[in-house]
Amino acid sequence: MRVAVIGAGWAGLAAAIAAAQAGHAVSVFETARMLGGRARALAPGAGAEAPTRLDNGQHILIGAYAECLRLMRLVGIDPDEALLRMPLALTFPDGSGLRFPDAPPPWDALWGIASAQGWSVRERAALLARAARWRLGGFWCAPRATVADLCTGLPERLLREFIDPLCVSALNTPCADASGAVFLRVLRDSLFSGRGGSNLLLPRRDLSALWPEAAAAWLRARGHAVHPGRRVQRLEAAAKPVAHAAPAWRVDGDAFDAVVLATPSTEAARLVEDAAQALSSTAALPLQAWAARARSLRFTAIATVYAEVSAPGAGAAMLPAPMLALRNGPDAPAQFVFDRGRLGSGAGQLAFVVSAFDGERAALEDAVVRQAARQLNLPALRILQTVVEKRATFACVPALERPGAPIAAGLLACGDYVAGPYPATLEGAVLSGTAAGQALPQGQAQAPTPARAP
Description:
This protein is of the alpha+beta class. Helix content is 34%, strand content 20%. It is built from 14 helices and 19 strands. The radius of gyration is 23 Å and the shape is globular.
């Protein structure tokens, strides 16, 4: 079949690869010039103050991201070279916090908690007891429970220095609002997926070069088309095929047998609503219902403040570790800081990550500079660029009803917002994309019946 994949983020490229492997002819359409969606490098010139190519946000992977790692190897990326692997660590500039050893589960978590620096014996025992309770309960909780509900009774230090940063980094949603069920699923699959599952994997190259550009090259080398800088304006259901002879969908007038929508949810809803307008009322109902659910999702922003140490003689490594947790508060917005020099991305460069961001860019930059001076003893920072991804992730709240992948015959959606067990992560995106590509019908697709002209 001729298959159109609209969107060349991680989900769309995963869908395109799966469709290509199934024997279909694939065309990928992407609005942006840079591939990767919300995990991509900025276009040339966008970060003029930076000597190296910056990303639209600082992302990390973990060892349990099996599908991401499989797809990297498939297109010729060596994860051991492209990613810095390190045991899970949530440590602060003063050395306090938690570090996992390189050991199989559950011993890595048990030893990491038992040996956490700066925590009292009572605090460590409380977290071990709560973790044991979660595991004995099968990492299950009531659908409407929040992460705060799961952690009721834990000491304040544990909430502030472990639960809060872990929750906001995984779900980009504050503990009081975040889904307890999704949080427990993330803990289960990362901490108990096998040795190394909880490891942090930090990119050593920009995000487009990490996988999307290689994925596009893999597709092109096999005769498939990838069109960056081309926004799809219209999706239409073609006339109902007669004897399986006519393609089922039209993308800007071009006929395809099937379409995978791998755009952000709002753009997917726009295309689906447009397609529904030309259908009979009965055929339009499921498309309209899907679009309404996609539009109902709430989103949260992530800001990344890139800064450079301007003091003379700044070395390649500015921090004692590639990633540190920061103490977050009203005047200290960043939860994490990354040393790009240690990652080979830029000597003297730091990336401050502010999850669940809501504020003004100038005020954020001033606050981050002051926070770096207090917590990192770095008083001379020069801001390179601040990137605010306004719709970085959906708000992962309890009992959230996310739109499903199937929309109509021959029309599917994929992306980290599509119904699934994970929050908005790269692994969730590629799992959704691979599933969509594999779910394409193996014969001629049947379109919804267009409305008859009066």
